[in-house]
Description:
- By secondary structure, this protein is α+β, with helices and mostly antiparallel strands.
- It has helices at residues 74-84, 95-104, 124-129, 149-159; strands at 2-3, 28-29, 40-42, 47-49, 66-70, 111-118, 134-137, 167-170, 175-176, 181-185, 192-199, 203-217, 225-228, 248-251, 263-276, 290-298, 300-301.
- The strands form 4 sheets. Strands 1, 2, 3, 5, 6 and 7 form a 6-stranded antiparallel beta sheet that branches. The protein has a 5-stranded antiparallel beta sheet with strand order 4-11-12-15-16. A 4-stranded antiparallel beta sheet has the order 8-10-14-13, with no helix packed on it.
- The chain starts with a strand and ends in a 10-residue tail after the last strand.
Amino acid sequence: xxxxxxxxGLLLLAPNPGGGGGGSDVQVRGGQDGNTARISxxxxxxxxxxxxxxxxxxxxxxxxxxxxxxxQNASDMLDFQQRSTRVDPGAxxxxxxxxxxxxxxxxxxxxxxxxxxxxxxxxxVSCQMAMDTYVFVPPGTTPxxxxxxxxxxxxxxxALTVPxxxxxxxxxxxxxxxLPTWVWLGDVGETTxxxxxxxxxxxxxxxxxxxxxxxxDSGTTGERADVVETGCGxxxxxxxxxxxxTCGVNYRRASIDQPRGVYVLEVTSVWDIGxxxxxxDVAPFVYEPVQVGAxxxxxxxxxxxxxxKTG
Length: 311
């Protein structure tokens, strides 16, 4: 049985099947404000946890921005609706009529499923509005558009963020032609970050990001600069006196003719993605690495020498 019901202008959704209380509008945010995406679960019971939140999002979006989640059995749902349903005098249906579909399911085995969506997705609301608000499902079955393990993994992936790179260089203020410019990431912190998405009492999945390497863009052409990445490791190589230069840029021409008189160096941190907590017959999940970049202005000068003839 499916039904689409709006009562007194309010969409009433069932609470957690475990009876955890709280409101019917549960929101979880991850990522950051700005131009990058962040997931915002609306009317969902999914819990997002882990240390992979609060950093920089790469803008990943869910493959499907709305879905059904299991809610309550027939008796508990009716009790919830009786306590929650309010009908204005001008509404097209009476309170009795609004509750009738839930009364009809009393005594039947099964569970109601309710609709949820990602409010950060431009298509999230319209996706939910095209679905029925409530679906009654027999035991051991999942309705069409019911949440799957693959979608729970995708939610964890969308909530995953990584630290924004902090680019360190040496020389720090100004470099010179043919003087190695060492490059590394400062304040890296934990090089493993993870997010777990949990539908309480039903299923859980964890997506993990491991810092794999950095990629360096000199901000100019190969004729003007050589990028050296033979010994960068996962986060670059900090300058150390007497050490071999193995990670950074060797500029071969001054930047005086460039816009603002600088080269714009970009360093991208590359985080490899893995999925944990998924077994059985579920197909393996493959995600592209998370790549997040940051830039530094590099003014490059040229040492002038004057040769004087004597004698």
